[in-house]
Amino acid sequence: MKNVLLIKEIYLEAFRNLGHAFVKSYFKAFSWFCIASYILVLYAFLFRISTGFAFD
User: Using one digit for the tens of pLDDT, what is the confidence trace for 1-56?
Assistant: First the structure.
């Protein structure tokens, strides 16, 4: 739980004094896109492992 709170604080601190609203919303959307992409890659990898895919 301590790590989750630390990540949350780093996220909030990164966007606190960023500047223009458009830049702030762009970077927030980009960070959520990166997190979603990473979760999708992890899901695909775990799915391939669970179905017995041969990594040749």
Answer: 788 899 889 888 887 777 777 787 888 899 999 999 999 999 999 999 999 888 77
Distance CA 48, CA 40 (A): 12
With contact defined as beta carbons under 8 Å apart, do 24 and 18 qualify?
A: yes
Tally Cβ neighbours within 10 Å of residue 1.
5
| 28, 16 contact by CB (below 8 A) | no
String of DSSP letters for the chain: -HHHHHHHHHHHHHHHT--SHHHHHHHHHHHHHHHHHHHHHHHHHHHHHHTT----
- pTM score > 0.70 for this model? no
